[in-house]
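Q: What does the assembled structure look like for these inputs?
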Amino acid sequence: MKIIVCIKQVPDTKGGVQFNPDGTLNRGAMLAIMNPDDKAGLEAALRLKDQYGAEVTVITMGLPKAKDVLVEAMAMGADKSILVTDRMLGGADTWATSTTLAGAIRNLEYDLIITGRQAIDGDTAQVGPQISEHLHIPVISYTQKLEIDGDYVIAQRQYEDRYHIVKAKMPCLITALAELNEPRYMTPGGIFAAYDAEITEFNRQHLIDVDDADLGLKGSPTKIAKASDKVRKGAGEQVNLDPEASVGYILEKLKEKHVI
Amino acid sequence: MDFNLSNKHEMARTLFKDFAETEVKPLAEEVDETETFPEETVKKMAKYGFLGIPVPKEYGGQGCDPLTYAICVEELAKVCATTAVIVSAHTSLCIDPIMTYGTKEQKEKYLPPLAKGEKLGAFGLTEPGAGTDAQGQQTKAVLDGDEWVLNGSKVFITNGKYADVYIVIAVTGMVEKKGRTMKEISAFIVEKGTPGFSFGTKEKKMGIRGSATYELIFTDCRIPKENLLGQKGKGFGIAMHTLDGGRIGIAAQALGIAGGALNTTVEYVKERKQFGRTISQFQNTQFQLADMATRVQAAQLLVYRAAVAKGNGGHFSTEASMAKLYAAETAMEVTTKAVQLHGGYGYIREYGVERMMRDAKITEIYEGTSEVQRMVIAANLLK
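A:
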């Protein structure tokens, strides 16, 4: 079985989010990590590899710095890695990203493609399903449990208060939830081997059946009009009054602010 | 000269740090309080290759260098010195002498299960009457047909009872050397479960209380002739060379304890308020922190230099002794200051820094006291 896992390097939001003066993310000031849902997807692929002996290829689109996330994936156990990078791919929205990744994946053989549900820096959850559309293969999104049965994938698709069991014939694509599993750690030897391993680089000319008009900032229908940080609320004022006095106090404040 | 770690070493640090914070730190207080050997953590470390870091891949190891191993011990010790010394004793004192002095057969038999962490290792040199004075050994090994027969005991053995493979130093006869009659000392590999090999009492210690420290007792313990490690009569040199490497592990442990105490203290002084200000705003606090951080940084450079020297394959005895001497004394000084800056809370067990201070003390004692390190450094200077 050949599995492709799409992963993305995202800013680590654990230590807080940093913004540039223009409201865009200050990625340079934040540590970069593998997107958590993607990491669960990679772990799912590695478990299938442990169980069935699959070949796992990880692919990411981004700046050369995104190689770090590929090295991490190989240190966890992925077999091959591909970086899709080209100046003209910058500024891509979900449409341009999925077009690019699908164009790159057309070079490869696969039975299963796994993407994370969504990235913590964009939260769109669109790229995975869009790739499946480009490649004309079935998609099972929001996968919280995964099994393989012969040529089929059987997945639990999460809903708010229930789950669906969905069966799809391979080749197909699933999008993984962080809840799917607990990703493994890297190993020290895996890290050393990963740094010595070759990372394949794709640029525009490697993308198959792709139109320039669908790539990068120019090929992105999404336009960001404005981005801003949340305005922090003040600490507020705490009062300890009996219920009757509280009602009077609140009414007074509401009148003061011309709410009533 | 480049003082930056390579990308692969930095990524390895990220791994060890992540593992230490997630898997080790939450258990550190309990491990100390209940004096429990952290078996589950050891299993997890085995799964991710932490027990075979500098072992070549052909023997089931990770194929990394001593620097990576030192960083692992350092990061573990930042949160739990007990867990760190388990890795250090296993790797430096059991695996390393087998890698260095073992026959092909011994390497093939012992290294893969040790490197994969399926088996744990330990080292027995110290005896009730032979600590710093290693020539005072009483444990004897006598060749009887195809077997060595061991009699005697070893004390203060780290990983005792939990380890499966023990490097044991014993007297195999008397030799004339420079006109004096001296003990001929040899090294052996002894497996747990061998008839005649038993364990005495578990020591109750001041620090590293989760680490299992046992007495090893040999009573007509018969081991195969081929379990002699290295040449007969070369045991003293093997033990000393092994301890040279071990000192890098203990230096890394001391460095980690100091680094952990510094990190904890930096966080604490930013929170703790006295006289209407955080105590970090007082110049005394700032000066103390500056001294602590400078010592930690200096210790780190010495430890990494010793690890790199070992990896390069040349002599590293002086480097290892300097690293251990300085890192151990740094650990003691930094943890003492950490407790002081925590004030009354520093003396309370749930705050953790008093544990670090208790743990730090042993690094000035085991695998050669600070005084022994000074002897080694001076002897190499005056050669």
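Chain B is about 50% helix and 20% strand.
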